[in-house]
Known about the structure:
The chain is mainly α and 206 residues long.
Amino acid sequence: MSAPGDAADFIADALQYESSWERAEDYERRLGAGLEYYGASVGAVRGTVRNAERRFPDLGHDDVTALAAELWSRPVFECRLAAVVLLQSAVRLLRASDLTRIEGFLRSARLPDLADPLVVDVVGPMLLRLGGQDAARAATVLDRWAAGQDAALRRAAVLAHLPAFRAGRGDDARFRRTVRLVSGAGQDRVPAVEDAIGLVRGSGAG
């Protein structure tokens, strides 16, 4: 692959071509003014990532993670959403060590519209395919998220269980441990975290 910046420029340029000022204004009204908005649709973002994967074929693990980081570094909603879509399409390549980079994304996501799909469509499926020591390392990271002070990471630690329960492979004991950690001493009750617990329980968690 060319430099990650070249691929990110290709994606950003394509998304700007797909822009709509009306949609950009609607995004800003609904999501807030923390990021720039091109006004490209979600479908356009997905199509642009597919086109980029064809233009830059045979992306390996390091290519994908570098490109995702380059896209995320741009404070534009659609570029960050493209990073999420890219990771969704390459989740089979991801490793437990990638949770460090994803944690950085989650800390700076600002919006549930970015953070939630990053967890439910990337972290959760990745956890389902990890085994052995990698699974243990990932569980340690999720425990740290759950016990920390960052409410976004606590919500992420809970939502990471959702794909497993939806697939009938959820671990009730593990989920209860996460709930204990996010609700531990010194943790304020946060509606977004409580909502995440309710979503997972609604998918069959005990």
